[in-house]
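User: Structure please.
Assistant: Input sequence and predicted structure:
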Amino acid sequence: MTDSVAPQTGAHGAPDGGGDQRPTFSARRASAAAQAAVGDQATGSKPRRAAKRHHPWRIVLIVVAVLAVVLAGGVCWVYFDLSSKLNQRNVDDLLGDERPSSHPSATSTVKTPGDPFAGQAVNILVMGTDSRKGDNAAVTGDAVEGDRSDTTFIAHVSADRSRIDAISIPRDTWITMPDCEDGQGGVIPQAGATRVGFNAAFSAGYEAGGEDTGVAAACAIRAVEAMSDIHIDAYVVVNFMGFVQVVDAIGGLDVNLLCAIDAPKAEGLKLPAGVSHIDGLQAVSLARARTGVGVGDGSDLSRINRQHALFNAIMNKVFAMNYVTDMPKLYGLISAGLSSITTDIGSLTQIAGLAYSMRHLTMASVYFATVPIADAGDKSHVVIIKDRAADYWQALQADQPLIDVVEGSDPATSSSAPTSAAPTDPTSESSAPVTGSAAPDTASSDSPTNPISTELPPPVTTDAPAEIQRPSDCA
């Protein structure tokens, strides 16, 4: 028979809880608890609680959860911070219907998630702007009005993301102004003008569009598509200050000069012969200098050669960065780049997807060239040699390595040094755009009589500073 504990009664002899009968408990089960309670009451201490077991995995989970929240918050902050710096401007509605066909044959099975052009070759028109407004005024220091394209090149990213081929277009190249839209349903006033400097296309669009960079870029895209029959898939416009910030973000550049430079009109740039470490302001002055000692003959081609070498030096340094130890520097680079560009590539996620698709590129994967040109005969402009340029354009259309075309060309068609003359306006580092002329469009000539060499400086390597000059620059 089982022992039981009788229920306690209240003042009136009724069980506690009204008339409800409490259940009985086992004497053995109640005994230990009761003894503990008595013991605690006797000592005046609180009832003892069973000791809890601390499992190490619970602590690990808590730490991981906290880190996940912190990292997620950090990622979100980074994403929104970078997104806020990106200036998007879609220009599809400004490019018209009569455009070169895209490159359906340039396809690849190599595809990266997030890449908006996955499996396809991409032609991106990259334009540096010669603007003196806003922060750019601190870079140039002059009062030239307007906004012109300065450095301009087509960056062709191969369909399999194994290389980038870039073709520069000198801003002094004669073109016929295309029928660019002004962004308000009309056409720019300069449409159809002949013997116009290529940089005037961007300037005319910018002015007619009410200082809209997108309208300016669209007009430049139309001009490039007309001369090359290359479909431009996207564009990027970079201002002067952006170039400065990018160079500063990677800690400056080491350059090797064959001769000293003294260019008073390029913000008083002075550099000795040999190796120098330059910051962003010095780099942009070196990139845009046209007159002075050690900068060549004043032609746009001399500047392009220096710009190619500087671009190579920047990419060389970026490619050599460690994604872990150099993360703060890389973030500064990305932030500086995004805050100084206007583009239609897509969202920040899509830009990141395209960039990630090119993660395996090295310096050997990037090749710069200049479209074949000749002296236009006016001592300031050049014309494209159409028959030779056709091979360059065809290489991009077929997604074939540009180096095979350039280095396989007949050297007899090129002179040993540039022959174009000084800029149109000797008082400024930038030549004013030509607005039009009734003269024949000599840019359409297939057989110019004075080809200009597009020889580049030696390629940049990780073992030596960038060699910026050619021997002819020291003459």
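The chain has a mean pLDDT of 77.
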